[in-house]
């Protein structure tokens, strides 16, 4: 159940959530194909029970953490976040989940750890997109440890109060609301604490277009398109573009993480 | 084959134009009825661009088809060319009016983004070809008309490059298009000598 509706980490918001059918029919989840409707078409093939997350690297308690065990120890909250894709479209998603920090605390992060690496399930027999070289599989992502420990950073396990739909990254996925959507890695099977900046899939694929940080920033354009504005999905044929906000509207909460950094250089 | 070619010739241009018009009308209907999904603008933009490219690739295939397969679609070439151009123009308009929306940003994209520049150059090449696709222009321009309309090859090639440049990560499909386009252009460049010689013996035959 939902323990809290107005959680501590969430900015005060009057956001209107995007309808569920839009959130579940318009997805970038290349493991199931590159078209936006491929995940909705093919993700039903994915087996999510049983599920375990391997937590290893610089932690006191490395091991396989069963999804059900994790859930029994976590407090599930609702977080209504803006979701901004690097392709310049956006949604508002009412996630359910727990703070990543709580999971990391469970594993006991060692003081030498500086980064967190994430890995998506690799199972080409259930994920047809993995049979093609759209990206190097499995999909990997990463955060700096302070980003991972930030109260806004969520491990999402549901949407609209229901378990996470498979096309949205069941059974658990990362949500980092101030970064472009591809940072919010889906269907996570491994979390590794490390002292080096981990490789990330899109950065490996096209380093000139996708950096490690990938913070939403209307002033730093993608080489092929402007990031100054975005198209809200679900508004129909004549939906107006809206201006993109610095750090996707979470500037107050997260700007401090990047003080003194040149955000053009660390894009 | 001759019978097939007779049937092809019987299909009038207006029928092709009618079918050609039906597609964008259907897209518009599908956009409002929800058949194009939750992002109808992008779906329509991509459908028009891709179908426009397909029609123009078909135009490039017409002379090789006649030369190598003896299928004569020459009577369709003008209509297909105009329809392909119209789809590409609509693709551009949907991008400008419904997708980017903001005129200053449209202009910024046109001068700044390589894949937009390549697409725009392709459209600019197609424009005079569409405008001179009438009988009056053919008569007026004479030999120069044929030369001018060879620019179709350049425009379609740029269209294929534009497609590759705008997709994220590696995807097969745009490369298949480019390979077909390059292949069709290469077929044109094959020496005609051999074929002429092969035809020669048939000439003296009484009709």
Automatic annotation (TrEMBL), chain B:
Cofactor(s) required, per the database record: heme b; FMN
Transmembrane segments: 12-32, 52-69, 81-103, 115-135, 147-166, 172-190
Co-factor binding details: Binds 1 heme b (iron(II)-protoporphyrin IX) group per subunit.
Leader sequence segment: none
GO biological process: protein repair
Membrane topology: Multi-pass membrane protein
Keywords attached to this entry: Cell membrane, Electron transport, Flavoprotein, FMN, Heme, Iron, Membrane, Metal-binding, Transmembrane, Transmembrane helix, Transport
UniProt xrefs under InterPro entries: Fe3_Rdtase_TM_dom, MsrQ-like
A GO-annotated cellular component: plasma membrane
Compartments where found: Cell membrane; Membrane
Any matching Pfam family: Ferric_reduct
Stretches assigned to the Ferric oxidoreductase domain: 61-159
Major localisation: membrane
A single MF term (Gene Ontology): metal ion binding
Subunit structure: Heterodimer of a catalytic subunit (MsrP) and a heme-binding subunit (MsrQ).
Role according to the record: Part of the MsrPQ system that repairs oxidized periplasmic proteins containing methionine sulfoxide residues (Met-O), using respiratory chain electrons. Thus protects these proteins from oxidative-stress damage caused by reactive species of oxygen and chlorine generated by the host defense mechanisms. MsrPQ is essential for the maintenance of envelope integrity under bleach stress, rescuing a wide series of structurally unrelated periplasmic proteins from methionine oxidation.
Family membership: Belongs to the MsrQ family.
Entry protein name: Protein-methionine-sulfoxide reductase heme-binding subunit MsrQ
Organism per entry: Shimia marina
């Amino acid at each position: 159940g939902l323990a809290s509706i107005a959680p501590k980490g969430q900015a005060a918001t009057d956001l209107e959530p995007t309808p569920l059918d839009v959130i579940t029919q318009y997805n970038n989840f290349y493991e199931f194909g590159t078209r936006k409707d491929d995940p909705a078409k093919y993700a039903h093939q994915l087996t999510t029970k049983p599920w375990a997350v391997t937590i290893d690297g610089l932690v006191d308690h490395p091991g396989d953490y069963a999804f059900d065990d994790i859930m029994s120890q976590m407090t599930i909250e609702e977080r209504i976040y803006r979701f901004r894709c690097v392709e310049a479209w956006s949604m508002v998603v009412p996630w359910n989940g727990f703070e990543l920090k709580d999971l990391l605390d469970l594993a006991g992060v060692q003081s030498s750890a500086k980064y967190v690496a994430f890995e998506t399930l690799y199972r080409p027999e259930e994920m047809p997109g993995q049979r093609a070289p759209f990206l190097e599989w499995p999909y990997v992502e990463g955060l700096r440890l302070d980003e991972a420990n930030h109260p806004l950073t969520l491990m999402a396990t549901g949407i609209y109060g229901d378990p996470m739909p498979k096309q949205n990254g069941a059974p658990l996925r990362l949500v980092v609301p101030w970064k472009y959507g591809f940072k919010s890695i889906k269907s996570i099977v491994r979390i590794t604490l490390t002292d080096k900046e981990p490789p990330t899939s899109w950065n490996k694929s096209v380093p000139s277009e996708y950096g490690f940080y990938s913070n939403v920033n209307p002033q730093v354009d993608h080489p092929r398109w402007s990031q100054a504005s975005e198209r809200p999905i679900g508004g129909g044929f004549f939906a107006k573009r809206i201006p993109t906000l610095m750090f996707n509207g979470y500037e107050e909460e997260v700007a401090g993480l990047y003080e003194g950094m040149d955000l053009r250089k660390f894009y | 084959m001759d019978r097939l070619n007779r049937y092809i010739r019987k299909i009038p241009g207006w029928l092709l134009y009618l079918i050609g018009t039906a597609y964008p009308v259907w897209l518009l209907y599908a956009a409002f009825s929800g058949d194009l999904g939750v992002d109808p603008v992008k779906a329509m933009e991509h459908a028009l661009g891709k179908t426009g490219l397909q029609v123009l690739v078909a135009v490039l295939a017409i002379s090789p088809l006649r030369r190598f397969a003896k299928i004569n679609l020459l009577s369709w070439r003008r209509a297909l060319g105009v329809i392909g151009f119209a789809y590409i123009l609509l693709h551009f308009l949907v991008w400008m009016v419904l997708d980017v929306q903001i005129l200053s940003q449209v202009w910024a994209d046109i001068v700044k983004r390589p894949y937009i520049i390549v697409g725009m150059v392709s459209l600019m090449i197609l424009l005079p070809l569409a405008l001179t696709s009438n009988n009056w222009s053919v008569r007026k321009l004479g030999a120069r008309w044929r030369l001018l309309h060879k620019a179709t090859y350049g425009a379609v090639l740029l269209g294929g490059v534009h497609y590759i440049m705008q997709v994220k990560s590696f995807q097969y499909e745009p490369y298949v298009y480019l390979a077909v386009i390059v292949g069709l252009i290469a077929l044109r460049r094959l020496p005609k000598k051999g074929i002429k010689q092969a035809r020669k013996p048939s000439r003296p035959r009484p009709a």
